[in-house]
Design goal:
The structure holds two protein chains of two kinds. Chain A has helices at about 30-45, 110-120, 120-135, 145-155, 175-185, 200-210, and strands at about 50-55, 75-80, 85-90, 105, 165-170, 190-195. By secondary structure, chain A is α/β, with parallel strands linked by helices. Chain A starts with about 25 loop residues before the first helix and ends in a 13-residue tail after the last helix. Chain B has seven helices and six strands, in the order αββββαααααβαβ. Chain B has helices spanning about 5-20, 70-85, 90-100, 110-115, 120-125, 135-150, 165-175; strands spanning about 35, 40, 45-50, 60, 155-160, 180-190. In chain B, helix 7 links the parallel strand 5 and strand 6 (about 180-190). Classes of the chains: A alpha/beta, B alpha/beta.
């Protein structure tokens, strides 16, 4: 630490102490202040910027009378229920074709909804694997930097993978929605849509939750 | 003891942190964004942010564009005021331009909100932007933000616990205003996704 040089007052005739070298400036307060400021800035700095997930929705058409037709065999409906529950059923629910599909319970874990999605998307993954193998063995010769683009094209042109319809119940949370969209990205699902839940599915969800005994309201005329 | 190297190092660090720090404005409500694997960084400018809080409040924010000389914030507020017959003084417009956090007050109260001296008064005024069909101010904010700044990108910062109906409502308003491409703000999660708690 900086020292305080005391002038020695000697008796008359005594020599004054000579100051050698540099003058000592007490730097302790400055260092204290700097340490404080550094701590402050270190604690307030956030290095990681938040990330974003991009979503593109189809344009809203004013004169849309009919929903676009999609193959029922490829359709997978995911219903987000309360308390982070996820239900799913394949195909579509048609009130004229009984019995209605039964909702199956799953969750957001690795063995849950992800396994279901990956199982259905296996054809696409096989295609991508095949493509990667072909590049390694030299069957396909393309510039290295166009490989991701080709894989993206494979995903886009894929017509065997599932079409996932995401339907969120009133009691689902925003986190559920983000999680399931994230799951689509993880599983490489090319086609998915956020769709409104319909009354049949609401009924099916109620049955699955044990809140009602039949899918349609008991006193309903439908 | 010679402290010169230590002081040198300290000043270097201090300069570094001072220059890299960007002060993020305080949000009116705490928002816990959900996690995702997306690694796309948030755009820096030309953005409008819709904040959805846990208790169904919706807050709005937009920036001045890539350059402060565009004065987008004051222009948007002026047009919005003209739509609702609310007049703002040049001082208020200037003050609003510098106010950088999200706000959630009805347009009729924005003047009062800007003039408030006490931050606590401001907080008390933040009740969320009206968005029901009778008085859909959020839709107009989005409309004017996009007419003034056509390059504006839409960000949605929602709390993970926000209920779906309010999210749906905001998405519907966006779709109504022909915003079909937007970004959901999330935190980056490790590649191995955790099991739900």
């Amino acid at each position: 630490m900086a020292e305080i040089v005391q002038e020695e007052k000697s008796e008359k005739g005594g020599k004054k102490k000579k100051h050698h070298g540099s003058a000592h400036v007490d730097m302790t307060p400055m260092v204290d202040l700097m340490a404080l400021l550094i701590t402050f800035f270190m604690l307030t700095t956030a290095f990681s910027k938040p990330k974003v997930m991009e979503i593109v929705l189809p344009e809203k058409k004013k004169d849309q009378t009919e929903a676009p037709k999609i193959a029922a065999s490829r359709t997978l409906n995911i219903i987000l229920g309360p308390d982070d529950k996820v239900y799913w059923y394949p195909g579509n629910a048609d009130p004229t074709k009984l019995p209605l599909p039964v909702l199956q319970l799953t969750d957001f874990s690795d063995e849950g909804v992800r396994t279901i999605l990956l199982d259905r998307n296996i054809a696409l993954f096989k295609k991508i694997d095949q493509f990667n193998d072909d590049i390694k063995t030299g069957k396909i010769e393309i510039p290295h930097d166009s490989v991701p683009e080709m894989i993206r094209r494979l995903k886009r042109d894929d017509d065997t993978g599932p079409i996932v319809l995401i339907k969120a119940d009133k009691r689902a949370t925003y986190k559920n929605v983000v999680d399931i969209i994230d799951e689509m990205a993880i599983c490489g699902i090319a086609r998915y849509a956020l769709v409104d839940i319909n009354y049949l599915e609401e009924g099916m969800l109620k049955v699955a939750l044990g809140e009602a005994t039949s899918v349609l309201p008991e006193n309903g005329n439908k | 003891m010679d402290m010169t190297p230590m002081v040198d190092l300290f000043s270097l660090l201090l300069t570094f942190f001072m220059l890299t720090t960007t002060f993020r404005p305080q949000e009116p409500v705490p928002v816990d964004t959900p996690f995702s694997i997306s690694e796309k960084p948030t755009p820096d400018n030309n953005i409008m942010t819709l904040v959805i809080s846990k208790d169904k409040g919706v807050y709005f924010n937009f920036d001045n564009g890539s350059d402060t000389s565009f004065h987008f914030r004051s222009k948007i507020l002026e047009q919005m005021g003209a739509h609702y017959n609310v007049k703002f003084t040049p001082e208020q417009l200037q003050k609003f331009e510098k106010y950088n956090a999200s706000f959630g007050v009805p347009i009729q109260k924005v003047g009062e909100f800007i003039d408030a001296k006490d931050p606590n008064d401001r907080t008390a005024m933040q009740t969320g932007i009206p968005l029901d069909s009778a008085d859909n101010q959020l839709a107009n904010w989005i409309l004017y933000a996009r007419t003034v700044n056509p390059n504006i990108k839409t960000l949605i910062k929602g709390d993970g616990q926000a209920e779906y109906p309010i999210v749906k409502k905001v998405l519907d308003i966006l779709q109504d205003k022909n915003v079909n491409r937007y970004n959901l703000i999330t935190n980056l999660e490790a590649v191995v996704v955790k099991k739900t708690e």
